[in-house]
Structure formats: C-alpha cells, structure tokens
Specification:
The complex is a heterodimer of chains A (107) and B (220).
Chain A (H helix, E strand, L loop, with lengths): L2 E6 L1 H4 L8 E4 L3 H13 L2 E7 H4 L3 H6 L7 E5 L8 H14 L10
Parallel strand pairs in A: 1-2, 1-3, 3-4
Chain B lengths: L9 H62 L3 H9 L5 E10 L2 E10 L17 H86 L7
Antiparallel strand pairs in B: 1-2
Helix pairs in contact in B: 1-3
Classes of the chains: A alpha/beta (107), B mainly alpha (220).
Chain lengths: 107, 220
C-alpha cells in the first residue's frame, strides 16, 4: 500500500489535505530537498510537487526519473503556472525521439 | 579500418562469422523493439500531454476557488476547518511490463466510499465557496492519478527507447561493419597464405626436379 504526498508552499497545497493526501508544506530549498528524500524513500507512490518547489530540487527529481516508484509529478502552484510541467513532457519526447516533433508548435 | 589487430586464423574467422550472425539477429530484434516502443510511447505521450493540460487547468481553477473561499473566511476558521481530514487515499501500485519496461499502474482507494467525506468540517461556520473549492479539487483527483501513471510510464519508456536506440545504432554502424571488415581481412590473409604456400611448393618441386634430372626450369 502506498500513499500520495503533495509538496509545496502551504497556500498551494492545503486543499489537497481534504482529499486525504499527505501535505508537506515547505518553505526553502533545504527543507524541500530533505522532505523529498524522506518521502521518496518512504512508502509514497506518487509525490506531487509544485513547479516552484520543483525548480529548487531539480537534481533530486532527476534521480528518481528512471526508478519505477515513486512518480514525481509537477503541478502548478497558487502563484501560477510556470510551464515546467509541460516542459518536462517535452523533454521526454526529446529524449525518446531525438527532437520534439509532437509539441514543437504548441506553447 | 580494422581497429585492432586480429589473428588471421581459421578459428578466428569462424568466431567472427558467428559473431556477425548474432549481431545481425540482435540488430533486427532491437530494431523491432525500438519501433514498437516508439509506437506505444507516442500514443502514451499524447495522452500524457492532454491529461497534463486538463489537470493543470483543473488545479488552476481549484486554486482560484480556494483563494475566493479564503477571502470569505478568517484564516483561523479555514485552518480549523481543514485541520483534520476525514478522507484518506491509499494507493496500490502494480507493475506492468510493456516491452521489457516495468511501468507502474496505480489503483487508488479511498478510506470511505462516501464521496461527501471530503468535507472535513461542519457546514455551519464555513463559506459555501469552500465546499465548491474542495469539490473542484476532488473532481480532478482521478485525472491526477492517471497523469502520474502516464507521466511516469513516459519517462521510463523514453529512457528505454534512448537506450535501445543507442544499441541499435552501435550494432548497425560499429559492430557489424567492424566484424565484416575483420572477416574480409582474415579471408584475404588466408587466401594470400594459400597462394604463397602453393608457389613455395611449386618452387620446391622445380628445385627437386632440377637436382634429380638436371632439368632446366626455364623449359616449363
């Protein structure tokens, strides 16, 4: 049995608590990194992380990219959408195909 | 072009010929694997992009609802209302094997079946905006789970495709041409040895004949 966690600034994620997801409010890079490690090594199957928080711990997220679990998924925060999530998808296309042939024209 | 020295022996030749057969078969198999992976990946990544757009739009509007809800209530009242969640989600992850890539498939279960259990507060002291906000977030949860599954699968498959593609290219452009070059080298070397042995034997025969019968080899 796995659990689902949401990492980000409190304002962006407090709503998810009502759904029964574990929320982990973080304020700075160090805290985010520690929390992410802790959750990823624990029994969490999916970790949603706000784009703003993810931008601080890109290297750590990269580490979990090729392991089957956990899935680390970027979501927009309350301050708006930075497009990092879509960028991530585009990056996988580039990795697989060699160049972005699918979403090149879409911004 | 032969990069390193190869022994021009028959044994080596047999070994290289076997290697070439294996390499060609491996190349064909890997190429098929790459094509099939790519086909499935493209379907998946399209779905991934669609889901992502839907989830992002959903979260954006949910966030907007939460901001409105927050504006209508005091922060303390809001925090109290959301302090003790009633609902709990647990996740079951099964691994599915797609072309030798293990991708997770998520099934989620809520602790209670009642979908109204997302409201962890009494309705008396909270604004109705909060109910709407919570509901809008709950509505996109299934899509979010599916997105997680899809996006993880895409990442894993992309890595596998990259690996397979490198292998295919290495076989096609390095291993197979190199082996063929080496085979040609050995064949030519062996032929050359054969010819020189032949000539040596002819020469020896001439010398022996000359010695025995005083033939002049120029007669031939």
């Amino acid at each position: 049995m796995y659990k689902i966690a949401v990492i980000g600034d409190y304002d962006s994620i407090y709503g998810f608590a009502t759904l029964g997801l574990s929320i982990c409010p973080v304020r700075n890079r160090e805290e985010t990194r520690r929390k992410l490690k802790e959750l990823a090594d624990g029994d969490y199957g999916i970790i949603y992380i706000t784009e703003a928080a993810a931008a601080q711990v890109q290297r750590e997220i990269e580490e979990y990219r090729e392991t089957p679990l956990p899935a680390i998924i970027l979501i927009p925060g309350v301050s708006g959408n930075t497009g990092a999530g879509v960028e991530g998808v585009r990056k996988t296309v580039e990795q697989a195909v060699g160049s972005d042939i699918l979403f090149g024209g879409v911004s | 072009m032969a990069g390193k020295h190869v022994n021009p022996t028959r044994m080596e030749l047999t070994r290289l010929k076997k290697k070439r057969v294996t390499a060609i078969r491996g190349h064909k198999l890997l190429k098929d694997k790459r094509d099939e992976l790519m086909r499935q990946y493209l379907d998946l990544v399209r779905e991934n992009m669609e889901l992502r757009k839907r989830v992002e739009a959903g979260i954006r509007s949910a966030n907007r609802n939460f901001v409105i809800a927050k504006a209508g209530m005091s922060a303390a009242a809001l925090n109290t209302a959301l302090m003790a969640p009633k609902q709990e989600v647990s996740l079951e992850a099964v691994e599915k094997n797609v072309m030798s890539v293990d991708i997770p498939v998520f099934k989620y279960k809520t602790r209670t079946a009642d979908e109204n259990d997302i409201y962890s507060y009494g309705f008396a002291f909270t604004s109705s905006d909060l109910d709407g906000a919570v509901k809008s977030l709950a509505d996109i949860l299934p899509d979010m789970i599916r997105l997680a599954e899809c996006e993880k699968a895409c990442q894993l498959m992309a890595a596998e495709i990259e690996k397979t593609r490198r292998r295919v290219n290495a076989l096609e452009h390095v291993i197979i041409p190199e082996t063929e070059e080496n085979i040609r080298y050995i064949t030519m070397k062996l032929d050359e040895n054969e010819r020189s042995t032949q000539i040596r034997l002819m020469k020896v025969k001439d010398m022996m004949l000359e010695e025995a019968h005083h033939y002049d080899c120029l007669v031939h």
